[in-house]
Design brief:
This protein is an alpha+beta fold and about 180 residues long. It contains 6 helices and 7 strands; from the N terminus they run E-H-E-H-E-E-H-E-H-H-E-E-H. The longest helix is centred in the N-terminal third of the chain and has 17 residues. The two termini are about 15 Å apart.
Length: about 180
């Protein structure tokens, strides 16, 4: 299942609070955060020192030929969250100014996401989630340009597997 629309920042905060609580009471999921650009290299160097995450990958977000522009903030990164209490903090920091995915995935799907991201075959991670049974992903464009509402709203995508907990389906679909 897929849901998408503009939503207010306040609603994102409420969703992240509930997902933080859920992540702390449910051990079946690995929590991955995939920031897809707009960060300087120094951001991920600093993040590497955080004990509450594992930095799985970082690299340039654009095509290889655009590396000549690497002085422009464009680093991507994939982390595994160790301390789930800090989910909202890390998600907001990593996602600042770009798209950012928050993935609740089983070990098999986690391995496939890591493989695709590290090989620059980012090909349709959301399809992995949608075609799964119990995985789900929240994907937000924090750099969304909304005309008169610019700065008040973001663009929101939720991808939900076929057998995800109904409380999560309701949370992510009723935005």
């Amino acid at each position: 299942m897929k849901y998408e629309k503009e939503i207010e920042f306040e609603r994102v905060d409420a969703i992240l609070d509930k997902l933080t609580d859920y992540s702390q009471t449910n051990d079946k999921y690995q929590v991955l955060i995939y920031g897809r650009g707009s960060q300087p290299k120094s951001f991920y160097r600093k993040l590497r020192t955080e004990k509450d995450i594992e930095l799985l990958w970082t690299g340039w977000s654009g095509p290889t030929w655009t590396l000549i522009f690497s002085f422009i903030p464009g680093q991507s990164g994939l982390i595994r969250l160790k301390n789930k209490k800090r989910l909202k903090e890390f998600y907001n920091d990593i996602g600042a100014q770009s798209f950012c995915a928050l993935c609740f995935v089983d070990k098999e799907t986690e391995n496939e996401i890591i493989k695709r991201v590290t090989k620059k075959d980012k090909g349709e991670i959301h399809e992995l989630i949608e075609n799964s049974e119990n995985n789900f992903m929240l994907d937000i464009d924090f750099d969304y340009h909304a005309g008169q509402r610019d700065g008040e709203v973001v663009y929101y995508f939720a991808y939900i597997g076929q057998k995800v907990d109904p409380t999560i389906v309701k949370l992510l679909s009723e935005v």
